[in-house]
TrEMBL record:
UniProt pathway annotation: Cofactor biosynthesis; NAD(+) biosynthesis; NAD(+) from deamido-NAD(+) (L-Gln route): step 1/1
Domain CN hydrolase positions: 6-268
Gene this protein is translated from: nadE
Source organism of the structure: Jingyaoa shaoxingensis
Keyword Repeat among record annotations: no
Catalysed reactions listed for this entry: deamido-NAD(+) + L-glutamine + ATP + H2O = L-glutamate + AMP + diphosphate + NAD(+) + H(+)
Protein name, entry field: Glutamine-dependent NAD(+) synthetase
GO MF annotation list: NAD+ synthase activity
Enzyme nomenclature, EC number: 6.3.5.1
Function: Catalyzes the ATP-dependent amidation of deamido-NAD to form NAD. Uses L-glutamine as a nitrogen source.
Pfam families associated with the record: CN_hydrolase (PF00795), NAD_synthase (PF02540)
């Protein structure tokens, strides 16, 4: 449960229709299995103590008594288990039957939540047997204990702040205004659904989408457990389709037509963070809910859920390609609008033969095409200096020619040497001044050429560099429009690869592939034997690690300790724990100390869920102290 993770389960037990004794034993067996696996919230299907398909047998006194006897066995079993369990059964109150979810924990029946929406169409006829549940909570007696009965109940975990569970039953989810809406507006972070959804062609896809969409709209965890094999097949077949979903993402899904129990971990801290961030998500205190407390032992949950090492990059090829096309279009449309608004008829870019400037040039080509301008209106400037290699120089020139842009070469060596003389810089001293003089000279050249051509300078720096402050202030840091400003380095690579794969020009593809194969470098130090001597990732760390850190810190506000824990799962076998921690410390130090560079960024289009624009996602003071983050980092091992 550390860092807000709680392990949950959705179970479809083996049952026999109307055999409550057998069913209770089967449920208890699954409860014990779930507890052994560390599951703290376990959900069983609708009416699983009797079977959903009992039909008119629900009117039998013997059936109702047997269901209560089965519930007693489940309550007793829970006494030695650490968890909150939800079980479905029929319940008689005031001579009416209700379809209820019983919440059980630590040897107690905590509450009975009735189903409100009773399907009575097509193959369903629940209204024949059951009465719709009411929101208001009343108290009923079971074995001498007063138990709340009603829809408006929430179960609070005393040990995990924010773990608040509410229940709805099957059809409740399928209506225009499900009970889970009111429950989450009242503060619930986890919804459990006890279901008996029969299977027919195509229904599973709709069901999955329904659960995903509801969990996304409500920013909650959603545990869906459905009836399976064991129900009567007189007219229907049930597949045991179980789902565990978090804020729209399916964490685990069962095989259909097979009774099984699935597990995953919900991240309660992440859900709470999302709700804090979303100002339109309002918890409404006007909803009156009865709060029931339950207890869990504090343990560190072992993660089995997938932790994506590349959160900015879709793993599915078709999704990735669709995303790449979308992003390139967003970038180009942003530049197109800025050019049209300012009346610019040309755009200027410094082309280095590296990834970022390559992507910027590709976007510029797309933008001028949208405007109906010739590609020659793009001025692509190569500015070789002390660190330029033949490989990057040739790729820059060839790329420009293949795209039909105008190529201009301005060798800045003599200008930089003259500047060294002016400021008294020893050219043999390869320090930060030596490097930044080159970067600022390049920016001056670009700005002046833009003035000459009545154009604007397009910036090439990406999101990862901005997060680390890996940019020369008023050098490559500055432009008139920055098309890559919200593109992380890991995604830049895939955008260029996508363009290479789809351009239809073998020669252009060859150049782009070689750019992709070139080490990331600012090329500000002299090469060694004609090859790049200055590799960025040797200096600041692997960009895939930094992008991972950035995503989890910015997107969910996660603390260093949790980011480190997730990174160890995501990069297991790729980086050692020591290496991850080394670069995590670097990331936080650079992120806090370099905010002043981000406070004055040029405009640029946001394309994803994380950006550092001072006018957008990151309103951060330039002088914020790192101390409380550093204290936690210092205690990590």
């Amino acid at each position: 449960m550390k860092h807000g993770f709680v392990k949950v389960a959705a179970a479809t037990p083996d049952i026999k229709v109307a055999d409550c004794i057998y069913n209770a034993q089967s449920i208890c067996s699954d409860m014990k299995k779930a507890a052994e696996q560390g599951a703290k919230i376990v959900v069983f299907p609708e009416l699983c103590l009797t079977g959903y398909t009992c039909s008119d047998l629900f009117w039998q006194e013997r059936m109702l008594d047997a269901a209560k006897e089965g519930l007693r066995k489940i309550i007793k079993t829970s006494l030695t288990l650490d968890g909150l369990f939800f079980v479905g059964l029929p319940w008689e109150l005031n001579q009416k039957l209700y379809n209820v979810a019983a919440a059980v924990s630590n040897g107690e029946l905590l509450g009975l939540v009735p189903k409100k929406y009773l399907p009575n169409y097509a193959e369903f006829y629940e209204a024949r047997h059951f009465t719709p549940g009411k929101e208001d909570v009343e108290w009923v007696t079971f074995d001498g204990q007063e138990v709340p009965f009603g829809m408006h109940q929430q179960f609070h975990c005393a040990e995990i702040p924010g773990l608040i569970v509410a229940a709805e039953i099957c059809e409740d989810l399928w209506v225009p205004n499900p009970p889970s809406v009111a429950a989450t507006m009242a503060g619930a972070t986890v919804i459990v659904n006890l279901s008996a959804s029969n299977e027919n062609t195509g229904k599973s896809l709709y069901r999955t989408a329904l659960v995903q969409n509801q969990s996304a709209r409500l920013i909650c965890g959603y545990i869906y457990a459905s009836a399976g094999e064991g129900e009567s097949t007189t007219d229907l077949v049930f597949s045991g389709h179980n789902l565990i979903v978090e804020n729209g993402t399916v964490l685990k899904q069962s095989q259909r037509f097979k009774n099984e129990m699935i597990y995953s971990e919900l991240d309660i801290h992440k859900l709470r963070s999302e709700r804090r961030r979303m100002t339109t998500y309002q918890v409404d205190g006007s909803y009156e809910y009865t709060d029931i407390e339950f207890h869990l032992k504090k343990t560190e949950t072992e993660l089995t859920r997938y932790v994506d090492p590349n959160p900015f990059v879709p793993s599915d090829k078709s999704d990735r390609e669709r995303r790449c096309e979308e992003i390139l279009t967003i970038q180009a449309l942003g530049l197109k609008k800025r050019m049209a608004h300012t009346g610019c008829k040309s755009v200027v870019v410094g082309i280095s033969g590296g990834l970022d400037s390559t992507l910027a040039l590709l976007v510029m080509a797309k933008a001028v095409d949208m405007l109906g301008l010739p590609r020659t209106s793009i001025l692509s400037v190569t500015m070789p200096c002390f660190g330029t290699t033949d490989r990057t120089y040739n790729n820059a020139c060839e790329l420009t020619r293949k795209l039909g842009a105008t190529l201009k070469e301005v060798n800045i060596q003599e200008a930089v040497k003259k500047h060294f003389v002016d400021i008294g810089q020893d050219p043999d001293r390869h320090d930060v001044t030596y490097e930044n003089c080159q970067a600022r000279e390049r920016t001056q050249v670009l700005m002046d050429l833009a003035n000459q051509s009545g154009g604007m300078v397009v910036g090439t720096g990406d999101l990862s560099e901005l997060a680390l402050g890996w940019a020369t202030y008023n050098g490559d840091h500055m432009s008139m429009y920055a098309v890559n400003t919200s593109i992380p380095k890991t995604l830049v690579r895939h955008l260029v690869k996508y363009y290479a794969d789809t351009c239809g020009d073998p020669q252009l593809e060859r150049v782009l592939v070689d750019v992709l194969d070139t080490p990331v470098s600012p090329e500000l130090l002299p090469p060694e034997n004609g090859t790049i001597s200055q590799k960025t990732e040797d200096l600041v760390g692997p960009y895939e690690l930094h992008d991972f850190f950035l995503y989890h810190m910015m997107r969910y506000g996660e603390e260093p300790e949790k980011v480190y824990r997730l990174a160890k799962y995501a990069f297991q076998g790729v980086y050692s724990d020591e290496v991850i921690l080394k670069w995590l410390r670097t990331f936080y130090w650079r992120f806090f100390t370099q905010q002043f560079k981000r406070s004055c960024l040029p405009d640029g289009p946001k394309v994803g869920s994380v950006a550092v624009s001072p006018r957008g996602d990151l309103r951060m003071p330039s002088d914020a102290s790192i101390q409380i983050w550093k204290e936690q980092l210092d205690h990590l091992a």
